[in-house]
Amino acid sequence: MRRAPEWRHRPLRDRVVPSTLARHARNFTCEFDRRCERAGIRRIRVHDTRHTCASLLAALDVHPRIAMQILRHSEIVVTMEVYTHVPSADTRRALRKLGEALGGRSQKKTKATHGIP
Predict the structure, then answer these.
(1) What pTM was computed for the model?
(2) Which of 12, 64, 93, 106 is most buried (CB neighbours < 10 A)?
(3) CA distances to 45, 47, 57, 88 from 65, in Å
(4) Rounded distance between C-alpha atoms, residue 95 and residue 106, angstroms
(5) How far apart are CA 108 and CA 117, in angstroms?
(6) Are 37 and 45 in contact (CB under 8 A)?
């Protein structure tokens, strides 16, 4: 009597989901790329949008626990140390000076100009 292949003894979710998830992720990424192109913005990895989201939430003074929940992290340290990138006021001021020194135009310090407080 011939024995069934090893994979047949595994639950259905272990046999179907990985390829289904991979196909879904590929389709999502392709659609994301198309939308970036259509909007005229540079293409970034979908995963990078998580970092952007974390940084924007921090810049908007959203409580770190709420940001952690939105990003579905299990530990606050992941949210705050890995995903959140918020430059200090000193960093923004130094970069503004550097831009001006390199021939950029001087900009007024407003929320509309920088997109963050």
Answers:
(1) 0.55
(2) 64
(3) 25, 20, 11, 21
(4) 11
(5) 13
(6) no
Instruction: Please state the separation of Cα 70 from the chain's center in Å.
Output: 12
> Cβ neighbours of residue 55 under 8 Å, at least 6 residues apart?
83, 84, 85, 86
Q: CA–CA distance from 80 to each of 60, 76, 86, 116 (Å)?
A: 14, 6, 10, 18
CB 36 within 8 A of CB 43: yes
User: CA-CA-CA-CA torsion for 24, 25, 30, 34, nearest 10 degrees?
Assistant: 100
Task: Give the pLDDT confidence of 78-108 residue by residue, as tens digits.
Answer: 998 898 887 788 878 887 888 888 887 665 5
Helix (H) or strand (E) holding 55: helix 48-59
In whole angstroms, give the CA distance from residue 105 to residue 79.
Answer: 35
- One-letter amino acid at 111 equals K
CA distance 35 to 43: 9
Q: What are phi and psi of 105, to 5 degrees?
A: -85, 150
